[in-house]
Specification:
WD repeats lie at residues 42-83, 124-155, 195-214, 258-294. The chain has 294 residues and is mostly beta strands. The protein has strands at residues 10-12, 17-22, 25-30, 35-41, 49-54, 60-65, 70-74, 79-84, 91-97, 100-105, 109-114, 121-126, 131-136, 142-147, 151-156, 169-172, 179-182, 189-193, 200-205, 210-216, 221-227, 232-237, 244-248, 254-258, 265-270, 276-281, 286-290.
């Protein structure tokens, strides 16, 4: 089985641990020793990992599965802390805001979980189609969600609401909103990468809903990553060249192409020191590469 394009199977923690999901297991790679130090297995072989996300500033890992579960694991003890139910389909996206974990599924529902309490589900948001991406903003004030029908929604911080809230902004794109990420140094700025029929990088001012810049990459964009150390942007691509590209910001001038993969580069993750990038491709190959600019 290969990596799935519409899932989120890679994350690099502040504790320098990489989690990567593959089939029914999540492998933990130590960013200091460069070795896999453990593997976590979900239930049965028919259950597969569909998303992973580290809590901010700790060793708790959230794992979404194809049967609608969200599992919490303590990596230090290698024990599962709890299973959180509520979804009725594949949990393809996860994002933390302190002790609040937001999870999105293919039926278009987003659940907010307070992982500290037994009655964990606090509120629900809804898209018309499946959730491809979820990201809390660095300010922790807004949640961005992308769906398979091209909608990008910006939601306020209100995880305790029991109503199906109305988003602050809803922006329509030509393809599924899978590649999406907040700028770490501009709290209202969000980058979105278009799919196979689009190929555009779009920079959004989420406070106004305005597109501040865009460029056509002439390629499927699978993942998008901000590089705070150099104030640049990295994108990973599928057809036709399966490359990773680094862009100057805010001009979006292309700086370099990196060709280390033979398949679509589905996922990117940045190390805590912001000088290494972990990239994983559809043919189950991964590359760790150093990048910084003087």
């Amino acid at each position: 089985m290969f990596f799935f394009a519409d899932l989120n199977l890679l994350d690099w923690s502040s504790e320098n641990l990489v989690a990567i999901g593959l089939k029914s297991a999540t492998y933990i790679w130590n960013g200091e020793s460069n070795i896999v130090i453990q593997s976590l297995h979900v239930d049965s072989p028919s259950t597969y990992v569909s998303s992973v996300s580290w809590i901010n500033g700790g060793t708790c890992l959230a794992i979404g599965t194809n049967n609608g579960e969200v599992q919490l694991w303590d990596i230090e003890t290698q024990k599962r802390l709890r299973n959180m139910l509520g979804h009725m389909s594949v949990v393809g996206a996860l994002s933390w805001n302190q002790h609040i974990l937001s999870s999105g599924c293919r039926l278009g529902h987003i659940h907010h979980h307070d992982v500290r309490v037994a009655q964990h589900q606090m509120g629900t948001l809804r898209h018309q189609q499946g959730i491809c991406s979820l990201k809390w903003s660095p300010s922790e004030k807004h949640l961005a969600s992308g769906s398979s029908d091209g909608h990008l929604n910006i939601w306020p911080y209100d995880p305790g609401s029991i109503k199906l809230n109305t988003p602050l902004q809803s922006i329509l794109h030509p393809t599924a909103v899978k590649a999406m990420n907040w700028c770490p140094w501009l709290s209202e700025t969000l980058a979105v990468g278009g799919g196979m029929r689009d190929g555009q990088i779009r920079i959004w001012d989420t406070s106004s809903g305005k597109n501040t810049n865009s460029i056509n990459t002439n390629s499927q964009i699978c993942s998008i990553l901000w590089l705070p150390e150099t104030r640049e942007l990295a994108t990973s691509h599928g057809t036709p060249r399966n490359q990773v590209t680094v862009w100057q910001y805010p001009t979006l001038q292309k700086l370099t192409d990196i060709y280390d993969h033979k398949g679509r580069v589905l996922y990117l993750a940045l190390s805590p020191d912001q000088k290494r990038i972990f990239s994983a491709a559809a043919n189950e190959t991964a590359v760790i590469w150093k990048y910084w600019r003087e």
